[in-house]
Amino acid sequence: MAVLADSDTRWKWGALTANRIAPHSGADRPEIRLDGYLLRGRATPTARQLTEVGVRADSLSEVTAVEFLRAMSEKTYDVLVLALVGGGVQAMLHGLRRVWEDRRDRPVVVTGYVGVVYEKLADGLLLRHGADLVLANSRQDAERFRAVYEGVGADASAVTEVALPFLGGAAYTGEREPYTVVFAAQPSVPESRKDRTYLLNRLVEHARRHPEREVLLKLRSKPGEHTTHIEELPYQKLAQKQELPANFRLVYGHMGEVLDRTDLLVTVSSTAALESLHRRIPTAVLTDLGVRESLGNHHFVGSGCLASWDELDAGHRPVPDAEWVARQGVAADGAYESAFDAARGRIAKLLSSGDLPPLTPYYTPVTAPGYLPGILARHHLGVDGAPLPGAPAADKSPGPVRQIVRRAARGAYRHGVQRVAPVIRRMGEL
Asked: What is the pTM of this model?
């Protein structure tokens, strides 16, 4: 099996998904080989981020789109998971269609979403159309995905209901000592300095109000690192300007390990809320900044988890709605182990057919002549899926000088996003 990912969170989703959907997976399954490919870009994960994710691969290499397509023309896999942003999936589908045009023993191509789908539903779905399986992380998502495909006249048979692949861990059994409150931060939600400072202040205030509790700010990445979304205002830097109480700490690491000691999980709209609900940990989705599509917390309407810091400070503990939880693929009732059976069955059936048809994305030069060429050009591909003239295709083993230049360029980009861009924006507001 192979996974192509463009960020740490997508690598985590892709690698875990590959393990969940591997044919014949189960207690008696043979060991699978997993080759990982990291698409070179602004969010290419660092070694620390990959270690924190905790997913191991038999091989791992950083590639351009053209290099990846060349590798797929030379290697043979049973299953390929595209763990990319929508435009990246679309570009790879067209590129793979071309490199596999004379092959019928191609891999089964699988794609999907890392977490909650709360924006750009139609756009993201149509960019993923053409894969053999488009995974939906819940019953609700599966219904929405099929409705979008059928609404534009596209084949919806690829939509396959599963669950988030990183759910797990021991169920919550009750309050521990010390009682631990965890705020799961997000890189881009909310965006403004004012809103992020407000949330940090309320978390710190909660720690001061409850000195007997341990209050943790769970961070996704360190300053200078990028994840799926750009983080212009890291909480670490905002926290440096405050005098923090002794029972308040910033923590990194695997989310599952943090949840092992969590008594109350608080977030704006992080997928960590679903991980927490899966383990029956009390979970609060904040309403302090409103319930808005731009925040993503509108997804939790009807969940029973919406609450404000004032309510949490006063001792309120949200109680999730069982029907809502069941529709989200959280599988807190113990059905999680069978959540990937349908996907495994479909993959096994496709592989046994021995003659897979060419990939057929909905977007073509006929259906989207003003949109598709730009999507493909970002990955240096033409409308026929072939590399454009001058497309970067580096050596398989770049030398030390080239590696240093790449790291310097990536660091300069991150510095621009996190330091220069906010200053320019503030100057423009004067």
From this structure: 0.84
